[in-house]
Write a structure and sequence with these properties.
BirA Bifunctional Protein, domain 2; 7-stranded mixed beta sheet; 4-stranded antiparallel beta sheet; binds adenosine-5'-[phenylalaninyl-phosphate]; binds magnesium ion
């Protein structure tokens, strides 16, 4: 009885996230539905539009080299379960800041939440000794669900920090810090952000060199993605963890779209996490927005689609290929398999796939959305060759019944058997 009682009591007060139990409290608001998105890793999924954009961004940042090696290391597998210290405190986000509100975040309890931005990992990676890095992953915010908002989206964040020698390679007399600021005793100096141009600890030269690098790197990135003629503008912004701060907007389909926030990292963060004698830039961008604009994907929910009509549009493409998404009907798909033995004069390697596809389309018409090779094998005893294809059916204007699909599928079987002299299995 006692045992049963304590189990029941426990069930009421713990919450399981990512295979770990956490104490629930008055802040707990994570739902099973939201927890189910964990580990989806769309940004790493083969042929997924978010993954394509991620790879293009990573490749762009790999072009920055120092002594032959890539400057930026990439972290795309960091645990989205973070502490309030990581998500807020380490980033100088005040205790009463709106972004901490229960109404905006998915809290596991008062101390833990699903990261609301990738910047949550900035201090831990700095602390581990890194200077230049990208952080890529899923972030979670309580928000409405419409064509541009979804409670889970993906961000690429970055930090680049430079020592004086790297910042001013040809001007050894220039300094990162104002003379009043003592890098050995950083806490004796009150760093302020009242000057819109820079933090009070930094020299104007250091801030301007870093700002120029930041802006050039980011403009280079959007030009790599959208082409060299993309129109852009910088908008002054505010983030508790950077100063000065900006947002980059691009002119896309007749309106300005914000794609990222960025700025010069607040020196307090570098002092707390190291490297304290450097100046750094940081930025954070949304992958969904870039992918939607690049590929003309009209609805953010499509990113979560398992519909092959969506995913195959991004398949086997050269990374830089221009892909324009073509809307797929929202009526359900029906998938039937077709397997057959090849005649003796044909092998699994000489069978003409394209002829087969044409024949299938010829009979099935527009309702054949996709034909994909599912399996091929050679029978160990008879040495007969066998192929199996999946045919995906979908009508653009209505729901197909299974009987209707079966009839068409049967017609295809008969036609294929005749045309290619195969034996349906
Ligand atoms: C941040 O998340 C900051 N951490 C970015 C940053 C990092 C600034 C480092 C300075 C230094 P923000 O909430 O504005 O900022 O989000 C950054 C980007 O994520 C936005 O520009 C946008 O591209 C994307 N984004 C934000 N909210 C959404 C949303 N609901 N849906 C899709 N994309 C979003
Ligand atoms: Mg913003």
């Amino acid at each position: 009885l006692l045992n049963r009682y304590s189990t029941a009591a426990k069930a009421l007060t713990t919450v399981n996230v990512n295979g770990k139990a956490f104490e629930a409290d008055d802040y707990t608001n994570i739902t099973p539905k939201i927890a189910s998105y964990l580990n989806s890793n769309l940004h790493l999924k083969k042929n997924h539009p978010l993954s394509l954009v991620r790879q293009r961004i990573v490749n762009y940042f790999y072009t920055f080299r120092y002594a032959g090696n890539p400057e930026f290391s990439v972290y795309d597998n960091l645990n989205p379960v973070v502490s309030t210290k990581q998500n807020f405190d380490d980033l100088l986000i005040s205790l009463d800041h709106v972004s901490r509100a229960k109404s905006d975040c998915y809290y596991i309890n008062r101390g833990m939440l699903l990261r609301a931005h990738m910047t949550a990992h900035q201090s831990e990676l700095l602390r581990s000794g890194l200077n230049n890095f990208l952080m890529i992953g899923d972030v979670y915010r309580r928000d409405e669900i419409d064509s541009t908002h979804f409670p889970v989206f993906h961000q690429v964040d970055a930090v680049r920090s430079l020592h004086k020698e790297r910042l001013f390679p040809n001007q050894p007399d220039l300094e990162i810090f104002e003379p009043q600021y003592d890098t050995k005793n950083p806490f004796t100096f009150k760093n302020t952000i009242s000057d819109p141009m820079k933090q009070s600890c930094h020299t104007l030269e250091a801030t301007k060199v870093m700002e120029t690098q930041l802006k050039n790197h980011l403009i280079g990135m959007v030009k790599t993605l959208f082409g060299k003629d993309i129109k852009h503008r910088w908008v002054d912004a505010y983030f508790p963890f950077t100063h000065p701060s900006w947002e980059l907007e691009i002119f896309y389909e007749n309106k300005w779209m914000e794609v990222l926030g960025c700025g010069i990292v607040r020196n307090e963060i570098l002092v707390n996490a190291g490297p304290s004698n450097t100046i750094a830039y940081a930025f954070g961008l949304g992958l969904e927005r870039l992918a939607m604009a690049l590929y003309k994907i009209p609805d953010i929910r499509l990113m979560w689609s398992n519909d092959s009509g969506f995913l195959t549009q991004f398949e086997n493409k050269d990374l830089d290929a221009k892909i324009t998404y073509k809307p797929v009907s929202s009526y359900p798909q029906c998938t039937n398999d077709l397997s057959f033995w090849l005649p003796e004069n044909l092998s699994i390697d000489t069978f003409m796939n394209n002829d087969f596809y044409e024949l299938v389309r010829g009979i099935g018409g527009d309702i054949v959305e996709q034909v994909k090779l599912k399996d091929k094998f050679v029978h160990p005893k008879t040495k007969k060759h066998s192929l199996c294809y999946s045919i995906v059916y979908r009508h653009l204007e209505r729901t197909l019944t299974q009987e209707e699909v079966n009839r068409i599928h049967k017609d295809i079987e008969v036609a294929v058997a005749t045309a290619f002299n195969v034996v349906i299995r």
